[in-house]
Each structure stands twice: as C-alpha cells, then as structure tokens.
Amino acid sequence: MTPRTARLLLVLGAFIAGLALFSAVIFIVTGRSPAPIAMQSAIGGPFRLVDHNNRPITDQDVKGKPQLVFFGFTHCPDVCPTALFEVSEILRALGPDGDRLGAMFVTVDPERDTPAKLKDYLSSFDPRLIGATGDADAIRAMERAYRVYAKKVPLDGGGYTMDHTAIVYLMDKEGRFVAPFNIKRRPEAAAADLRRYL
Ligand code: NI
Known about the structure:
Layout: H1 3-30, H2 36-41, E1 48-51, E2 56-58, H3 59-62, E3 67-72, H4 79-94, E4 102-107, H5 115-122, E5 130-133, H6 136-145, E6 150-154, E7 160-164, E8 169-171, E9 177-180, H7 187-195
Parallel strand pairs: 3-4, 4-5
Antiparallel strand pairs: 1-2, 1-5, 3-8, 6-7, 8-9
Helix pairs in contact: 4-7
Bound molecules: nickel (II) ion.
C-alpha cells in the first residue's frame, strides 16, 4: 500500500474510532445503546462560513434542501478533485432536479483557500457546487461538528499538504445527518438514491 493509501486508511480509521468512542460515551452516560437519532444529531449543526462568492453562508441558508457536505482543499492532488468531479456528475445526472440539492465543499485549508481561490477552483466543476471557507476558528468548529479529521502535513520540498476525512455527508432538508453518501458508483444510481430525499 502506498503511503497515501495508508494515510487515507488512517483518516477513515480515526473517523470510525471517533464514532465508536462517541457511541461508547453515550452508552456509559445513558446506560443504553444510542438511538439512531442521537447519532444523527451528533453530526452537523449550526455553522457560519463564507462562500466562494465571499458572501456569508450559514446552516439557515442551506435549510430546505438536502445537502451533500464534504471536506477538502484546493491543493489536494487527487482525492478532492475526484470527489468534486463525482459530485458534479451526480448533479448532471439529476438534471434540473439537481437544483433542489445542495452540494457544499468545505475547505480544511482556510489559510490558502480564500473565497477567490475556491471560486477559481470550482469553475472546473458543476456551477451548483458551493465552496465554503472561513477563519481558522470557524473551520475548526465546522470540522468538530462533522467529526472531521484534518491535519497539516509538511512536504519534503517545503510547503504542506493536508490529511483529511474524505467522507461525503448526506444531510436532510432539516440539516440532520442521514448517512455517509457513496459517490463511488454510477452517477445515475447515486442520483436515483438522492431523489428520495429531494
Ligand atoms: Ni483531498
């Protein structure tokens, strides 16, 4: 396995361990297994960020539409562009129905990903995608709310890359977490799945 694969597995492992730990804490506190709703409310919640047009965007602004929320950064060599491409394909497969879905790419690298940088980067993908950034505190709060792991990793030649959770979160119209959403399949199949939430 390549170092990159190993890192991604580590990131996924950390996420799953986090969920397991959370469930264990709930169990200890309440003495019973967490109801699905408790898990759902554990992911997501209020946020206050800035979109790629440099306008404020909050959880209230995206309510009323189901959302695909995912995290990444514009310097990402492979995983993020692939995810953005796949989500764009799903929006294309949805056609006009895609207007009733939100798709938000949240940067884990606010230091470099300014609104202008996000706007430029997203111009290669479906125009309905929303890029979100913010100050370091706002992004950290967003990562915490979605149980996202993100860490700066220095590069040999200088600069840095980011390790980060590469899960796509499906949120319902009320902003509640539904499930991780599988984008690694035919866009038509993913679109059919999403239509149930529109
Ligand atoms: Ni990435």
